[in-house]
Write a structure and sequence with these properties.
Strand content of chain A: under 5%
Number of helices of chain A: 6
Largest interface: A-B, 26 and 26 residues
Helix content of chain A: over 70%
Oligomer: homodimer
CATH architecture of chain A: Up-down Bundle
Structural class of chain A: mainly alpha
Order of helices and strands of chain A: HHHHHH
CATH topology of chain A: Methane Monooxygenase Hydroxylase, Chain G, domain 1
Distance between the termini of chain A: 37 Å
């Protein structure tokens, strides 16, 4: 039988996994909203962030309570502190999906993404989805091998981010400065989202192996 | 006489103040490097981030040790956890100053900032400097009134950020897409830097008043 302490720790873990699911859905919906200039979906992403923020707050409070009441020893302590950091990363990932949805909403009914970069943005959305799904699985199962895959996905995201700039900076770019700004910000949001997912996964690795994460 | 525990807590506080000083210098040097297209200063900012990262790591480890060895009660616990979050914000602020210095270096010997936005960027640099200096003072003295000032500085930063977009999106913008991208990213880096400084200050307020910060 588990004790109360470890039950509460499990609840924090479950909240993190649920948050990774929510910010994954937010990101994939935001990408669809962006590519299809879909106002309803944009609003959906923006509204759904409340749920992420609530889980963030609840999980923080639960972690504080647990620390204060139970005075956990080193190993458990590290798990809780790491959980607090992860919850902050997940909250930020939700914000980044909202930023993307807001750009889609701002340009509606026009698409924010010119046809020439659609494909790269679409791929960035796919990679973001892969990364967050794997980060959720790493969180759920402490699967170190998946964590290595996730690092490679992040390299793919960086390559797509570079490709985006190459297109926007090409002399044939014909969509003007406004679209260039939108695409620059969008690229940054996808890239930061992936960075946070990688940091989540590294923190799990750190917990499992005891090694400090590379970043 | 102070006990060892509170001496160590003071050392964490001193490290946070020192980090705020370092990332303040990094930001003001990065702004000068940017405005003067100064390669030496750019490199200086980039190299100096090692010191911030080292302090980040040392302070994290000290906080973990303290938590594990001393099993602090609720109030002290909250101080340490908050310190861990602050150290993460400060580390990120250092990164943002480096991002700015890297844009200056990338465009060297040309200036990355066209003459038309020089003044706004200069002001953003000044506001960033004000904010981080006040955040350092809030950290050092738990001065709640200064924290309110800092929120107003952040509003000023947001207004400058908007102004930047107005200039870049004006039909008379003559510097092309590359400069627009640089300016977009620079604007975002200054704005995020200020956000992190505000979050530092809010966390101090939270510790002093017991109220959760607004973000």
């Amino acid at each position: 039988m588990r004790d109360t302490f470890h039950d509460e720790l499990d609840q924090i873990g479950a909240a993190l996994i649920e948050m990774s699911r929510l910010v994954g859905t937010a990101m994939s919906t935001a990408t669809t909203a962006l590519l299809n200039a879909d106002l309803t979906l944009s609003e959906e992403v923006i509204a759904s962030d409340d749920k992420v923020n609530l889980l963030h707050q609840e999980t923080e409070e639960r972690a504080f309570d647990l620390l204060a009441r139970q005075q956990p020893v080193a190993g458990d302590l590290r798990v809780i502190i790491t959980g607090l950091r992860m919850v902050a990363s997940l909250e930020r990932m939700g914000d980044l999906a909202v930023h993307i949805a807001k750009i889609a909403r701002l340009r509606y009914p026009d698409p924010a993404v010119p046809s020439e970069v659609r494909d790269v943005i679409k791929q960035m959305g796919v990679v973001a989805q892969n990364i967050v799904t794997k980060a959720g699985a790493v969180l759920a199962g402490h699967d170190i091998e998946l964590a290595a895959e996730l690092e490679r996905d992040d390299d793919a995201m960086d390559a797509l981010h570079k490709k985006l700039f190459t297109i926007v900076l090409d002399k044939d770019w014909q969509y003007g400065v406004e679209a260039a700004i939108d695409v620059t910000l969008l690229g940054r949001f996808y890239e930061r989202y992936a960075d946070h997912a990688v940091s989540l996964s590294r923190r799990v690795v750190q917990l499992v192996t005891g090694e400090l994460p590379a970043s």
